[in-house]
Design goal:
single chain, 381 residues, alpha/beta, seven-stranded parallel beta sheet, six-stranded parallel beta sheet, 44% helix, elongated
Length: 381
C-alpha cells in the first residue's frame, strides 16, 4: 500500500509533530508512506530534531486553478521519487493507493492528485467550518472516491447532520501517554514557585480571551504566575495586547512564536488553558492530557474530548471571575491539580492511543481499497 499524507500551511505548522508520528506509525505497519508539506511551511521541517524519517516532500500550494494541473504534476513526480514511496506501483496499478488530506487549504490539489493517480481520498474534518465545506467539495468533485474522517464522535455527529454523500468515519487522533510521574523535587518546586500557565487560543477568540485575561489579572494579585501565550494572538490583533497592558499583565506575559510547535514549553507548564469554542480540534490538548498536565477548557460541543472532571475541567461560558476561581482552586490545592492530570492521562490512554489511531486508519484504508476495485483513471488516458 502506498500512502501520501498531505497538509496545508496551517496543519503543517501546528500539527507537524502529529503528522510525523503518524508517518512513523504507518511505516511500522509495513506500508510505503510519504508526507508532503507546502514550501511556505518548510521551516517547520528544518527545525525538526534529528529523525530517522525521510525529509517531507515539498510542494507549491499557492496559485490559482490555471496553474494547479502543473503544480499537481510536479507534486506527483516528487512523491513518486521519494525514497519512502518506492518505485513500483501498487498491485492494482495505481501510482498511489491513498491520499490522506489534513487541512482544507490543500483539498483542491489533493483531489486532483487523487484523480490523477487513482488513489482513494481521505480528508480530515476537524472543525464545523470544514464540515460545511465538505458538502461543497462533494458537489464540485463528483468523480472522486472520498472518505471523511472525524477526530471525535462529536465531529462525526456534526457531519451526519449535513447532506454529505461520502462515507464518514470516526478516527480519533492518537498520542502516547507518559507513564513517568513528576519527581518529588519537581512537585515541590511547582507547589512553592510561580505557577506557569500556557494559554491556547485562536486569534478570532478575542471576546473569550478578554474574559480570561481579566480573570488572570485578578488571580495574579494573590498568586505568583507566569503566562505563556502564542505571539500570533497579539500580533494579529492589537486589542488583546492593549487589554493585557491595561490589566498589568505585561510583566508576567511571555509571547511564544508558533506556540503549538513549542510543545515542550506547554507541557512543562503547571496548567494549560484552552480558551476558544470554535470546534477546532488540536492535538496539543491531547498531548497535555497524555503528559498529565492539568487542563482547563471552555465548553465546546464540537470537540468530543473535553469531558468535565475526566479529561479536563470544563467551564460553561466563563466570565473573568469563573476563570479566577477555578485556576486559584487548582493552585491552592496542588494535589487536586495532580489528580486531574492523572485522570487526563488515563483518559488519553483509554481513548486516544497512537497504536489505536494507526490500526483504525489501516482498517479504513484497506476497506476503502477493497470496495473500489476498479480500473484507476489517469490523467491523459
Amino acid at each position: 500500500m502506498r500512502i501520501l499524507l498531505i497538509a496545508d500551511n496551517d496543519m503543517a505548522r501546528r500539527e507537524f509533530a502529529m503528522l510525523r508520528r503518524l508517518e512513523l506509525d504507518l511505516l511500522g505497519q509495513g506500508v510505503s508512506v510519504a508526507l508532503a508539506i507546502p514550501e511556505r511551511s518548510w521551516h517547520v521541517a528544518e527545525q525538526e530534531p534529528d529523525t530517522t524519517l525521510a525529509p517531507p516532500v515539498r510542494y507549491r500550494l499557492r496559485g490559482g486553478p490555471i496553474t494547479r494541473p502543473l503544480r499537481c504534476a510536479a507534486l506527483n513526480d516528487r512523491v513518486l521519487a521519494a525514497e519512502s514511496i518506492g518505485s513500483s506501483p501498487s498491485a492494482d496499478g495505481r501510482e498511489l493507493d491513498v491520499v490522506h488530506v489534513f487541512g482544507s487549504g490543500c483539498w483542491a490539489i489533493a483531489s486532483d492528485l487523487s484523480v490523477r493517480t487513482g488513489a482513494v481520498l481521505f480528508a480530515e474534518v476537524f472543525s464545523p467550518e470544514l464540515a460545511m465545506r465538505a458538502v461543497r467539495v462533494e458537489r464540485r468533485r463528483s468523480v472522486l472516491r472520498g472518505r471523511w474522517l472525524a477526530p471525535s464522535t462529536a465531529m462525526l455527529d456534526r457531519l451526519h447532520t449535513l447532506p454529505v454523500r461520502w462515507p464518514c468515519h470516526a478516527c480519533p487522533w492518537g498520542v502516547h501517554p507518559v507513564d513517568a510521574q513528576r519527581s518529588t523535587d519537581e512537585a515541590t518546586a511547582h507547589d512553592t514557585g510561580p505557577t506557569s500557565i500556557a494559554v491556547l487560543t485562536a486569534a478570532e477568540s478575542t471576546g473569550e480571551l478578554d474574559a480570561l485575561l481579566a480573570g488572570l489579572a485578578d488571580l495574579s494579585r494573590a498568586h505568583e504566575v507566569m503566562l505563556f501565550v502564542s505571539e500570533s494572538v497579539f500580533s494579529n490583533d492589537r486589542r488583546p495586547w492593549r487589554r493585557a497592558r491595561e490589566l498589568g499583565l505585561i510583566s508576567v506575559l511571555s509571547l511564544i512564536p508558533d506556540i503549538e510547535q513549542r510543545r515542550d514549553v506547554i507541557l512543562a507548564c503547571d496548567l494549560a488553558i484552552i480558551c476558544e469554542h470554535h470546534g477546532v480540534h488540536r492535538t496539543i490538548a491531547l498531548d497535555a492530557m497524555a503528559a498529565g498536565t492539568p487542563l482547563l477548557a471552555q465548553r465546546d460541543p464540537a470537540v468530543g474530548w473535553f469531558v468535565d472532571h475526566e479529561s479536563c475541567l470544563v467551564l460553561e461560558s466563563p466570565r473573568a471571575g469563573d476563570w479566577t476561581r477555578t485556576i486559584a482552586q487548582l493552585i491552592d490545592q496542588p494535589s487536586d491539580a495532580r489528580a486531574l492530570g492523572q485522570r487526563a492521562r488515563e483518559y488519553a490512554r483509554r481513548h486516544h492511543l497512537r497504536s489505536a489511531h494507526v490500526e483504525r486508519l489501516m482498517s479504513l484504508y484497506t476497506a476503502a481499497l477493497e470496495s473500489t476495485r476498479t480500473i484507476p483513471f489517469r490523467a491523459g488516458a
